[in-house]
């Protein structure tokens, strides 16, 4: 099992208090849903010990403050805001996609009902912007503007993703555009928000944003690979889960668009309404045979390389650059 | 039929262009849902001629700029933002409450599905903040902060409203607190956002906010009266609609808490799971006999008076004060 980089565990403690303080401002009914969704409490509102999530976005946010030579704490409102935005999008996505499981537990909407889950998501979204606007310093409004623009990209990506479910033909470029909005935009925002809060020049925040955008595509590619070939014990999702739900993820779309005989066979099989559990292994084998797996692995590597190049042009302090690269490495090698 | 004040129709044209420009920035799938919900298009995306809504909040927003001696156009981003926030909350509330009709038409979620309606609401919320943060001038971040705080109050009010549905005993104070969050907060924000955008002193923006808060409670009381005794031809809702859905609106809660024999009879009847269509007239008569109707009418009048007093203390230019009062009068005398 891959280990979480040290900076990620450090961050979790630093951000946890600020995140709890922010969410603690919600009314009790909304808080209950949010606290469950964030993994802090169980269905009955009792505290849980297991830490939730990877805290990847907050780690990137704090690191981005250091990129501009500011102390990591100065980016705390940014770290909280990106994590709240991430939580909002997962909460609403689970309802929209009808996903009943999130991080090995029943999704919040299955526990509290759709209405309360919609409302809690709304609250987290509003709170994210509020926290940023309350941040001291001149960069606060600029950071809030970046976050709302990012949120709208998340929404565009989700709209495109839902549209894919009604379509047969999707190009690799369309799928990359979707991932760029739905996944990469928030990672890009996380990688630059600390610098933006600190009032860093645009040349620096743009370079960090570009790093995060490529990192984000790599992240999605790895996620998609795990969605087919990941180990259920570590991913928390059933084996072959993306195939079972007929997801149009990047390796699958790449395989479907490949100029190979396996692509046609895959398309025929994947379109069958009566695709049986036993056929899923064959679908996975066809995605691999059509080159979808190899393409996704190579594309992820190449995105990570491109991401690293943006850091070079940003002329970061060496320890900060090393930490960004360490997280990038973690993202591509993770098993969950 | 009551007529719409002149300033409200003027506003509609001024704001309409800015609102369409903002919503036009959404991706095409999300735009389709938003444009239908805003009354601009039909189910097929074809333009409609009927203007939608009362544009009450934008009118107040533009007027609030004039309160600080700024030109009304300077509050356009504020007017757009409060209308987008209002649209967001109606869109999500209809899903949460299972309301299938909105302004004489099928609610957006019944046409486009819940998932698309959730997403479109999210987009309108994010867009509202974005529009404010893009506004020129120093007041932009302060206005955005006021709007996100208001949005969280809308959410608290909706959470409380949903909680009411599971309870038998609700006090008038609780019901007023709910209306204060769910309805009055956004009207209060609308009444002050133009002044805030203009960088007006807090004493002025606070007074305008207080005016809007009392106006908002009056607005809700009138809404609740129309929900029982309104004419279906003008309200667009079936007769006695709030009784049919067992809503715990202000006149009903006041009647239930009255120290009169009719209150007990009303409570007994209202709690019946098999309340028939024929019994609704009797319920309405009991709300009236227990004093719920008279209380709501008097409370609305008294709130309007209190609202007017806040304007006196704000020392507004006389024409601006007259227009605020004109709108307040419209709110209490409207029939839909």
Describe it.
Two copies of one chain form a homodimer. In chain A, a hairpin with a 2-residue loop joins strand 1 (101-102) and strand 2. The longest helix of chain A is centred in the middle third of the chain and has 28 residues, at 202-229. Chain A is mainly α. Chain A has a two-stranded antiparallel sheet with strand order 1-2. The first copy, chain A, has one domain: Farnesyl Diphosphate Synthase. The first copy, chain A, has helices spanning 6-23, 28-37, 56-67, 76-97, 108-112, 114-133, 140-164, 172-197, 202-229, 232-235, 241-244, 250-256, 261-271, 280-289, 292-314, 318-333, and strands at 101-102, 105-106.
Q: What is the topological layout?
A:
2 copies of one chain form a homodimer.
Chain A: H1 6-23, H2 28-37, H3 56-67, H4 76-97, E1 101-102, E2 105-106, H5 108-112, H6 114-133, H7 140-164, H8 172-197, H9 202-229, H10 232-235, H11 241-244, H12 250-256, H13 261-271, H14 280-289, H15 292-314, H16 318-333
Antiparallel strand pairs in A: 1-2
């Amino acid at each position: 099992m891959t280990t979480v980089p040290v900076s990620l565990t450090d961050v979790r403690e630093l951000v946890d208090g600020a995140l709890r303080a922010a969410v603690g401002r919600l009314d009790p009914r909304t808080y209950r849903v949010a606290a469950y969704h964030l993994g802090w409490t169980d269905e009955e509102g009792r505290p849980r010990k297991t830490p939730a999530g990877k805290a990847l976005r907050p780690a990137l946010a704090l690191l981005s403050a250091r990129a501009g030579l500011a102390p990591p704490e100065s980016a705390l409102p940014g770290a909280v805001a990106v994590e709240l935005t991430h939580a909002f999008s997962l909460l609403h996505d689970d309802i929209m996609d009808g996903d009943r499981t999130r991080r090995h537990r029943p999704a919040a909407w299955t526990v509290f009902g759709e209405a309360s889950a919609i409302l809690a998501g709304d609250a987290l979204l509003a709170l994210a912007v509020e926290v940023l606007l309350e941040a001291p310093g001149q960069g606060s409004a600029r950071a809030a503007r970046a976050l709302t623009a990012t949120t709208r990209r998340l929404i565009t990506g989700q709209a495109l993703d839902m549209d894919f479910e009604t379509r047969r033909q999707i190009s690799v470029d369309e799928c990359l555009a979707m991932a760029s909005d739905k996944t990469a935009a928030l990672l890009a925002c996380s990688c630059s928000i600390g610098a933006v809060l600190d009032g860093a020049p645009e040349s620096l925040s743009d370079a960090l944003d570009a790093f995060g955008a490529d990192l984000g595509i790599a992240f999605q590619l790895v996620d998609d690979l795990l969605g087919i070939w990941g180990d259920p014990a570590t991913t928390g999702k059933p084996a072959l889960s993306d195939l079972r739900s007929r997801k149009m993820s990047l390796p699958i779309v790449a395989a479907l668009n490949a100029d190979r005989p396996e692509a046609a066979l895959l398309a025929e099989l994947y379109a069958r309404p009566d695709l049986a559990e036993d056929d899923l292994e064959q679908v996975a084998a066809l995605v691999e045979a059509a080159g979808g797996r190899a393409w996704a692995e190579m594309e992820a590597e190449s995105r990570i390389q491109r991401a690293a190049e943006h850091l070079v042009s940003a002329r970061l302090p060496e320890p900060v650059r090393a930490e960004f690269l360490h997280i990038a490495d973690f993202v591509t090698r993770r098993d969950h």
